[in-house]
Amino acid sequence: MLASDNISPNHAFKKLIVAQVELNFLNRTVFFVEELVITTGLEFNLLALLMSNAGALVTREHIAEEIFQRKLIDCNKSINSHMTNLRKKLLVISSCMVIKTIKGQGYIFLTY
Q: Of 4, 77, 79, 106, which alpha carbon lies 20 to 30 A from 86's?
């Protein structure tokens, strides 16, 4: 679900809401089950990429190019680290899994 009132030139929309996660692009905040999740810039961008492709596989190669602007071989460990940190922050709030790993391929943001 997208909210697009007063579209800014930098963002196609102000908010992105999928399942129980809400991203606000204007102030770069994340709410999960209506609780604030403090994220780093990279974690926010990673979550935004996954959520904007909710229900579809986002490959590790695509994450490397979009988020890190590098080849996968140069940031493979960084992707693992940021994904682990992001998942830990979400699990503190709820045990509901929202990011599924497809081993050796990438991740799917779950829509339920």
A: 4
Decide if 18 contacts 110 (C-beta within 8 A).
no
Distance CA 61, CA 106 (A): 8
| Closest by Cα among 69, 101, 102, 105 to 86 | 101
Q: How far is CA 82 from CA 13, 23, 32, 51, 68, in A?
A: 24, 17, 17, 15, 11
Dump pLDDT digits (tens) for 21-66: 999 999 999 999 999 999 999 999 999 999 999 999 999 999 999 9
All structural domains of the chain with their residue ranges: 2-25+36-109
**Class for the domain spanning 2-25+36-109:** mainly alpha
pTM: 0.86
